[in-house]
User: Fold these one by one.
Assistant:
Number 1:
Amino acid sequence: FLEKGEVEFKNVSFSYPESEVPVLQNLSFSVKSGETLAILGSTGSGKTSLFQLVPRLYDVSEGEVLVDGKNVRDYPIEALRKGIGVVPQEAVLFTGSISENISWGKEGAVQEEIVQAAKDAQIHETVLKLPNQYDTRVGQRGVNLSGGQKQRLSIARALVRKPKILMLDDSTSALDLKTEAKLLEALRKYACTTFIITQKISTAMEADHILLLDDGSIEAWGTHEELLETSPLYVKIVQS
Ligand code: DCP
Ligand code: MG
């Protein structure tokens, strides 16, 4: 659905349709195919808003978002939705089996692919312990899962589609460091461009680029080492 998964923001500003308040202001950056971008910033700084502009859950107010050099407005919406795996901040489960929850949105996914996605999302072992494994019902009247387990199911749902661009909105917040490290390692073989909103410096350190948002603007851009040199705000976050 997408060729390479390169993403470029060109002078992007954004405010929500019902409001005048600018949420993102004049953002420019680019991420190459297969690179990882970590997005940091305090609550309300615009991280989730930025995410939503790539699969066109919202459209920019000014500027352009390009995927593989082409304005996202010029793609069929299907291509964006199928080529971009978005894992939302609040994991959503549907009433149905674990398998159905993972394969949702990917017609014709076979069990093998579902299990592989679950393994990569680090949820397979948990699923095996459930009463009916992959046939276990979740959601209403189903088994209850913890926040972290829901997050990982939601990641598996994105991975089964083999996205060119993967967007994780704080999706590893409930994972311990070891599980998160295994997950990030497993993501490598997908070779997708990855946007990862995170509060954890340990995650940011592994990324090719870090974008630090402050009140809708880019406060800093670079690698961990670069930001330690150039951004007092980043240093403050590291030390906190
Ligand atoms: N906002 C809005 N309308 C919405 C969603 C958000 O007006 N439907 C506002 C609230 C914030 C700003 O936009 O002032 C940025 O919100 P984000 O959700 O993008 O912020 P973050 O994702 O960075 O915050 P958090 O870390 O809490 O998820
Ligand atoms: Mg958010």
Note: The pocket of magnesium ion (ligand 2) is lined by residues 47-48, 89 (CB under 6 Å).
Number 2:
Amino acid sequence: PAAAEAALPPSNPGTPPMSDSPWSLLPAASANAEALDTLYIFFWILCGIAFVGMIGVQAYFMWKYRKPAHGHAKTSPLTHNGKLEFIWSAIPTFFFVILFAWGEIEYMKQVTPPPDALDVRVTGQKWSWTIEYPEVKGCSLTNDLYVPVGQPMRLTMTSMDVIHSFYLPAFRLKKDVVPGRYTVLWFEATKPGLYPLMCTEYCGDEHSSMVGRVHVVPQEEYGAVLAKACELKQGDTESTEDFGARVLTRGGCASCHTTDGTVKTGPSFKGLFGKTETLADGSTVTVDENYIRESILEPNAKIVSGFSPQMPSFAGRFDDKQIAALIAYIKAQK
Ligand code: CUA
């Protein structure tokens, strides 16, 4: 099971399932999404009726007043028609007011989290999402958000570096995540499943890797599922290397580092251990246990030439055992 988890792409929710609804392309998986889709469909039908009505009248008049076979008939000297003008102003106004009121009601609901909402803290950083659950002490997940069905969730979000944007297409929600302030988002998931979480604000090289997963689970399973997800200890029968692979997945390392030799924002782990690297100042360093440890805790102290200081520190996020496992895993990538 550990190997299977390690083999998972770090944070790729895959293609979202298609919706059953003929009106939208994405499944609607929150109370908010269903309400917004109803409004959207109403708007769509209204526009359709208006479009067909206007084009229909135009087509009819073009046909009715087409050029006669023998010369032009004299047109009527009409200047205006008060009754008609009132009708064609009043009907659209009536529908505009309905749209405004309906939109306002939905908007107010969307910005007012219910008092019984469960709190979650979200921190965006280049290029992953850190998700913390105050109810589970010390629980910090990368790119995985666990949610019980039918339970309102309140997300308090901030960024460690630049502006990101937290986007849940299946919940029809999107909000900027801004350094130096908190933004709040809430939702209530209605269907169990796995849904994509994306960053929709261009935030640098690996913006497109900044994707995560929302796991919507039944209420009664939530506590156990979250406790298991939060636990990051080496299993009894698990090798240190396999545990390292799990720590890597959890830590979001794969947003920037590969294990197949491809260079993304950071060096690839393939064949990295034991290599002699040249640093930006021209000095050299051998990639050993101490260098990897330092690079995790203080990433910008000794940067390999050709790379830029982009990595956040993982001090306080990985403990010694987890770091040792990461080193074992990196060492094994021959
Ligand atoms: Cu974070 Cu784009």
Note: The helical segments are 2-7, 31-64, 82-111, 219-230, 240-251, 289-297, 320-332.
